[in-house]
Amino acid sequence: MTAQHVELQQCIWIDATYLRDAGLGPHLQVVVQPGEIRIVAVPAEHEQRAPSQEGWDVLRALGHDAEPGLLSNAAEEHDRYLYQ
């Protein structure tokens, strides 16, 4: 076990060798609780997967049977129409 005492000035940097020595891997999760900050490895089921061909096909199909819009200049006024 390695311990290092630091005085908080603005932020805390953790050397990557400490993370590697702990076996945490490249994807980390920071858990903040009263009196404790814990750094843990991201569980494998939460790792981002590569997009599938089926997912891309569904996305591409969305525009094939779309109804024409009734808003003029919808592309130019996108934010105004959405957030009014």
Structure description:
- The protein has 84 residues and is α+β, with helices and mostly antiparallel strands.
- It has helices at residues 16-21, 53-61, 78-82, and strands at residues 28-33, 36-41.
- The chain has a two-stranded antiparallel sheet with strand order 1-2.
- The protein is elongated and about 65 Å long.
- The model has no long low-confidence stretch (mean pLDDT 79).
Outline of this structure?
The protein is an alpha+beta fold and 84 residues long.
What share of the residues lie within helices?
10-25%
The count of domains is 1
Strand elements, count: 2
Structural class: alpha+beta
Strand line-up in the sheet with most strands: 1-2
Radius of gyration: 23 Å
Characterize the largest beta sheet: strand count, sense, and whether it forms a barrel.
2 strands, antiparallel
Write the layout of secondary structure elements.
Layout: H1 16-21, E1 28-33, E2 36-41, H2 53-61, H3 78-82
Antiparallel strand pairs: 1-2
Question: What characteristics describe this protein?
Answer:
2 strands, single chain, alpha+beta, 14% strand, elongated, two-stranded antiparallel ribbon, 84 residues
